[in-house]
Fold this protein.
Amino acid sequence: MSKKIARRTSLDMTEGNPTSLLLKFAVPLLLGNFLQQTYNIVDSLVVGNYVGKEALGAVGSVMPVTFLFISLFMGLAIGSTVIIAQYFGAKDKRNVQLTIETIYKAYVVMSIVITALSLFFINDLLHLMGVPEDIFDFAKTYLSIIFLGYFALFGYNVNNSILQGVGDTISSLYYLAIAVVINIVLDLLFVGYFSWGVAGAAYATVIANFCSFVFGVWHINKREDGVRVRLFTKNFSGPILREAYRLGIPAGLQNVIFSVGMLAVVRLVNSYGTNFIAGYNAAIKIDGLAFLPITSYASATTAYVGQNIGANRMDRVRKGVRAALRINFVTAAILAPLVVFMGPKLLSLFLDQYDPEVIAAGMAYLWRVVPFLWALGFLFIINSAIRGAGSSLMPMLITFFGLILGRVPLAYGLNHYFGRDNIFWSWPLGWALALVIAITYYLSGRWHNKSRLQFSPELSNEKHGSAAGVETCADADSK
């Protein structure tokens, strides 16, 4: 077995109290997610106040499209987090580095391909979403520039996956904070001073993403002992890449399914005109902030389970999942009433002048969705635990049943029988369906033995080389 990995800001979660470890991991990640979310919020605030509600609707309406293409890539990042976490938990320094070099090479190729596809199909995607003609040009301008910045955005997420795998959520927070300040300054400069409209907001976001990407590479190479981003080397492992895709493709498809479900519902929302679109898009920005703790706890759960699986500490896994569920519930119980109560004031921040129709549309969403965020948190945490153990197919199927077979038909049915405001009941109802399936599978315990990365002595690097552990375990598991 290779020697213990030297660490500065990384976090070993195989020992210690699960609740404190999860919070230590999740709180910096939460702050980082909050800062990242402010990219879109600042764009919306500046555009809504300096350009108008049509531009606000345009910026918000393209979010499902960007998330769709990002999802095609994010599976690779999620898979690499699981692999790095398990190798890190096993103190296998050599395979941690090999995984990083392999994933980075794959990222460069994928970012080029996805950017080209995004630009080629941009008109078709906007028409598919039913973006109204009065905001179509705004949406296309903003989206085209965002697509050109995908290389930096994807790179930032690769860096995050590496750092999260070794338990470090603090370092990227500092660099992201700098990038957010850059984004705010450039938004005010490009949109407010130069009057570049939605294009200025997009340029500000792309430049800020590039800064956070570069800072992340610098940190990994200069500050994390024994871990390096080295693109121009011959080190590459086909077995590790296949394992990353095996773990990551279902996770990526899960996000694609989520995006497709959102696109179908957004098309319905877009049929009700600019005021309803603007209200909905302002509401999902607020909802997105309330959602950030969920994603942070879910990421913490994936890393926690992955490290403890790698260390063969199954006794700690269920304790960690229960701790994450408790943390999520307490957080949701505090946040939900605050968000709903402050809803009208928060929504008005996105408008250059008070518009009661826009506020009413936003509150229709917040009243029906935010009180049930605890259920979404339970769903994300259980799925993350299952994925951290090496089983990523089941979370994808759970998402498919909850969002495609659940939310989409419910949205159209509720719209038909009860009117447009009740479309939003499809959110919690879809979550409930998915959660029932997730809990049933989790309690069955079938996910315990899904991990591909076994760390027995006969699979150590000394005997089989840097990538043999992944290859051999895949073969063993197929028997």
Notes: Residues 297 and 324 are 6 Å apart (CA to CA). Confidence is low (pLDDT under 50) at residues 1-7, 454-479.
